[in-house]
Write a structure and sequence with these properties.
By secondary structure, this protein is of the alpha+beta class. 38% of the residues lie in helices and 23% in strands. It folds into 3 domains: 2-97, OB fold (Dihydrolipoamide Acetyltransferase, E2P), CATH 2.40.50.140; 118-275 and 392-495, Bira Bifunctional Protein, Domain 2 (BirA Bifunctional Protein, domain 2), CATH 3.30.930; 300-367, Orthogonal Bundle (Helix Hairpins). It has 14 helices and 17 strands. The longest helix is centred in the last third of the chain and has 36 residues, at 334-369. The two termini are 38 Å apart. The protein binds one RNA strand of 77 nucleotides through strand 2, strand 3, strand 4, helix 2 and strand 12.
Length: 507
RNA sequence: UCCUUGAUAGCUCAGCUGGUUAGAGCGAGUGACUGUUAAUCACUAGGUCCCUGGUUCGAGCCCAGGUCAGGGAGCCA
């Protein structure tokens, strides 16, 4: 018997094959059992007809519960109604295990309920699609760098260095010494670049931020390239090339997955256009509404958002009332009542979201209007500015006081540091942070003192400026952030198999 | 740490200004139905209304404190 994966089933039309998988849905009527089987590659409807199989096979099929595991054989037949264009006319069913009552229903669930069952939630279609897109992104990143002679070299996870202060580090006991879980491999990346010319790291990163927002995890995966002989402009070219490569690859190879999650790819297709490069000064003027972008003004855009949110609220309430009246009229069939009730549930959830927006938007408006020149951007400022663009934007030349100690001062204006942040469109905000590194040993020493960092821990780093120092640059890409943007997820917790955040270490 | 919203059946929610025995849909169980796509239909079971204290003739609803969770600020990828 030929074994097949569901994704290839069409090639086997007319033949008899065996699938190994799990029951993802089941419908029954007299003499017929319809099984949706998933094998990790796809989903296929399998039809068990009492008239065509033995009594034993039919009763086995009837016994199956959701997520039971089995091996199922049958003839692949054409059926235009099916998603894959084919279904399986079953001849045999071999049960591996009958699953207990599966907790995740075919209906909607709350976030906490699903998070507690993440180990099972991963089996659902949407999560399947997200994880496959994540996989494609990782693959594209490796291809992109390997094709350009980068060497993957990993930084340690236990580290004695506190890159940007110790407040957000996880402390561990390392044979009696204090060690921290790495919050960036960048300093090591610089050392490795001086050995290899161009390197990239790809590993987990830890931040003990007590933040509960849709953009933060305590453990996330970061890609950190570092290149010798590169300045900030070459760095920006590389970032742009990398992002363009990732996005075009995902669009080209993940059509099914993007379809499953309902991602509209039109916006993503814009990445072929050049990414605008704004200085910090320009970006601040745009955020404060002093400068328009393509006829769009940041302040006006938020004000419009508030107006349309209020209008939407009225609209939703009217629709709920309409549907409630319909149900109350008593003229509907049972199926129509549940349909309307499901719609009402959905609308009520939307009300909560819209009300949340209405609480936040005025605060963001204020924050944008009163943005103080010289500060770093907040999450809302990033959202406000990126909403005006349809491609990622790069903001560079930041006030050196708000940026990390290792960034190079702008040779033309010492108030600025040559850092660059890349902000994703559709409100997603920062996905990349990077810059050109300071090469002047004295300036670095000053900065380390200014940031009150322990000098001894950075002696090795200063060596890089003493032995063959050259200009160099690099950046860090947050994997979950880009997954989040490409899949248009509402929260990063869905962008990683097992998210780690405040209050969540299990499962 | 601060601001803000919430916790009612296995799940998603409703429950009016405080008033008798707390409801619906889904899921589960049983039965019906030979082509279903979250199948449909009928019936059945299913509750410490998050915890502690208070106000009241009476609390799911009001008040105080706590626990847990969602969203946001700060900080960041």
């Amino acid at each position: 018997m030929t074994e097949a994966y569901i994704k290839n089933l069409k090639q086997f039309e007319g033949q008899t094959v065996t699938l190994k998988g799990w029951v993802s849905n089941k419908r029954e009527s007299k003499g017929l059992v319809f099984l949706n089987i998933r094998d990790g590659y796809g989903i296929c409807q399998c039809v068990v007809d009492a008239a065509k199989v033995s009594e034993e096979v039919f009763s086995n099929a009837s016994k199956l519960t959701l997520e039971s595991s089995l091996s199922i054989s049958g003839t692949v037949v054409f059926d235009e109604k099916q998603i894959g264009g084919v279904e399986l006319q079953v001849t045999n069913v071999e049960i591996y295990q009958i699953a207990s009552e599966y907790p995740i229903a075919k209906k909607e669930h709350g976030v906490e309920f699903l998070a507690d069952r993440r180990h099972l939630w991963l089996r659902s279609q949407r999560q399947w699609a997200i994880m496959r897109i994540r996989n494609r992104i990782i693959y594209s990143i490796h291809q992109f760098f390997q094709e350009q002679d980068f060497v993957q070299m990993d930084a340690p996870i236990f580290t004695g260095n506190a890159c940007e202060g110790t407040s957000n580090l996880f402390e561990t006991d390392f044979f009696g010494e204090t060690a921290y879980l790495s919050q960036s491999g960048q300093l090591y990346g610089e050392a490795m670049a001086f050995a290899m010319n161009k390197i990239y790291t790809f590993g987990p990163t830890f931040r003990a931020e007590k933040s509960k927002t849709r953009r933060h995890l305590a453990e996330f995966w970061m890609i950190e390239p570092e290149m010798a002989f590169h300045d900030i402009f070459m760095n920006m070219d590389l970032i742009e090339g990398m992002l363009r490569r990732i996005v075009t690859d995902v669009i080209a190879t993940c059509e099914t997955e993007l379809g499953v999650i309902g991602r509209d790819v039109e916006m993503l297709k814009n990445v072929v256009k050049p990414f605008p490069r704004l200085t910090y000064d320009e970006a601040v003027r745009i955020i404060k509404g002093e400068q328009d972008v393509n006829g769009k003004n940041s302040i006006k855009t938020i004000e419009e958002d508030i107006t349309s949110a209020n209008a939407r609220l009225i609209e939703i309430n009217n629709e709920i009332k309409e549907r409630e009246d319909k149900i109350a009229s008593g003229s509907l069939k049972k199926g129509e009542i549940s349909f309307n009730q499901a719609k009402i549930d959905k609308l009520k959830n939307e009300i909560k979201d819209v009300e949340e927006d209405l609480r936040n938007l005025p605060l963001w408006l204020n924050s944008a209007k009163n943005f103080e020149y010289g500060n770093d951007f907040g999450g809302s400022d990033e959202t406000v500015i990126t909403r005006l663009f349809d491609v990622p934007i790069m903001v560079y030349n930041w006030p050196h006081a708000v940026k990390a100690f290792y960034l190079k001062r702008d040779p033309n204006d010492s108030r600025f540091a040559r850092g660059v942040d890349v902000l994703a469109p559709e409100g997603y905000g920062e996905i990349v942070g990077g810059g050109e590194r300071e090469t002047d040993e004295q300036l670095l020493i000053e900065k380390i003192k200014e940031h009150e960092l322990p000098m001894e821990a950075f002696e090795w780093y200063l060596d890089l400026r003493r032995y063959g120092s050259v200009k160099h640059a690099g950046f860090g890409l947050g994997l979950e952030r880009i997954v989040c943007w490409l899949c248009k997820l509402p929260h990063v917790r869905e962008a990683i198999p097992f998210p780690r955040m405040m209050g969540r270490v299990l499962p």
